[in-house]
Amino acid sequence: MEFLKKVEVWFVVGTQHLYGNEALSQVKKNAEQIVQHLNSQNPFLQIKLKNIATTSEDVLSICQDANNQDKCVGIIAWMHTFSPAKMWIAGINQLNKPLLQFHTQLNKNIPWNEIDMDYMNLHQTAHGDREFGFIVSRLRKPRTVVVGHWKNIKVKHKLDRWMRVIAAIYDQKHLKIARFGDNMRNVAVTEGDKVEAQIKFGYTVNGYGVYQLAEMINQVNEVDVLKLVKEYEESYQLVDSLKENGVNRSALLESARIELGLKQFLDNGGFHAFTDTFENLNGIKQLPGLPVQRLMKQGYGFGAEGDWKTAALLRAIKVMGYGIEKGTSFMEDYTYNLDDNNELVLGAHMLEICPSIANQKPILDIKPLGIGGKDDPTRLIFSSKTGAGINATIVDMGNRFRMIVADLDVVDKPQAMPNLPVGSAFWKLKPNFDIGTQSWILAGGAHHSVFSLDIDAEMLRTFAEYLEIEFIHINKNTELASLKNELRWNETSYH
Q1: Contact between 136 and 93 (Cβ < 8 Å)
Q2: 163, 364, 394, 427: which could form a disulfide with 408 (CB 3.0–4.6 Å)?
């Protein structure tokens, strides 16, 4: 996530010449004070104050510069005084970076004994922002509105959440996804329109022969393999057969070789997400299990069976959750525990669950895979942390992309599962198992998803709004009749 150190958010202050040079000077000083404070609070992205905007030409110039400067990932607009909205039309109409309307004012309290008309003219956010808000709505531009005093910790939290989302949007527009092999044969939901995805999200998806990856793996230096295995030994609980002189030690060495070759291939090509499939492994001795798990933990997006949409979404959510460290993983609804009134979903996959969600030091083991016809792969085995979580997926509905997000209550496993050979998570659906499951199915939700304890549905709603894709939220208030109406109305809207 090194790119996060290189990008910035622009802070633009709207005002006008009506109030005189003294007022404009004060507006600038006040803006400097606010930006300095926000930057002192360790924001997710650094904020850069731009010249105050007093004319249409000022606004247009700032918006054009924002579009043309790659390091600018979004704009925070604050109307210190009344700023006539017609002067914002040309600039906002051209702006292609995410916009946040900051509804704040310099002083937290009214100066009861001193307030006069000069004060009123200078501190006009209350109605200046309504003028600005109208024109943004009139232009049908998506934006986030944050309300509250700029020193309030809740406001800081809202600004950071927005910055996380727009950083992910920036990353999607620069993302390159490598596909090793094709989609799993005859599977529908992992397919999709890659050209339309590039138009809508910005990322590129291209396929590479597995032999190309195999060539990179075969070039890995043995010294590097041994060094990485040493890291494995320090990071995980190795079963005896994988320890030095163990009967399966060679499989662990091969896993390290695959990880190094895979990472080298991705880094050489500038890829931050990838897919593979057990049906295309020519030249590779194991299906990458441990290597994929570790690369996900480092922030790479991943989708199994060629699922490039999930790989892209996983990368986006990894960016949004950077530094939170509760965990985000590729996931699949695998099987159920259907106790009356206590139904649970067991989420897992054949191998590839990210250890960022682990609630303990993972066990590094080797188990048969049963499909793919290759050597037994190594993998990390663990149970997930608990708490509020989400499952998210993006599906191609033919005429649009739809994001579906389900709120989860992630719980401890009810009993030990000594023979389960994969990382796993248990969760309860909201509002309950019946409605939650029906809702996901009715909305066309995929069997693959991104599972996260780091972010919530509202951040993904913001993500979807800026990218102008459909958004469906399954939560504690979901009712089937209302959901069916929403899906029907959305179908008409996107027709």
Answers
A1: no
A2: 427
pLDDT band at 373 (very low <50, low <70, confident <90, very high): confident
Averaged over 12-17, what is the pLDDT? 90
Please list the residues that pair with 471 across neighbouring strands. Answer: 403
The two three-digit tokens of residue 225, written as one number: 């393999």
SS3 194: helix
Cα separation, 441 vs 474, whole angstroms: 11
Judged against a pLDDT cut of 80, whether residue 165 lies above it is answered with yes
Name 398's Cβ contacts closer than 8 Å, sequence gap at least 6. none
378 vs 364: CA distance, rounded Å: 7
DSSP string, 396-461: E-SSSEEEEEEEEEEE--SS--TT--S-BEEEEESS-HHHHHHHHHHTT--SEEEEESS--HHHHH
Task: Give me the residue label for tokens 């007093």.
Answer: 54
Structure tokens at 454: 């780091």
The rounded percent of the chain whose pLDDT value lies above 90 is: 87
Whether the ω angle into residue 43 lies within 30 degrees of 0, i.e. cis, is no
- Read off the tokens for 160: 């950071």
Q: Rounded to an integer, what distance in angstroms lies between the CA atom of residue 381 and that of residue 379? A: 6
pTM of the model: 0.95
pLDDT band of residue 349 (cuts 50, 70, 90) is very high
Q: Nearest to residue 463, comparing CAs of 47, 10, 69, 74?
A: 74
CA–CA gap between residue 428 and residue 391 (Å, rounded): 11
The answer, yes or no, to whether residue 228 has pLDDT greater than 80, is yes
Distance CA 29, CA 26 (A): 5
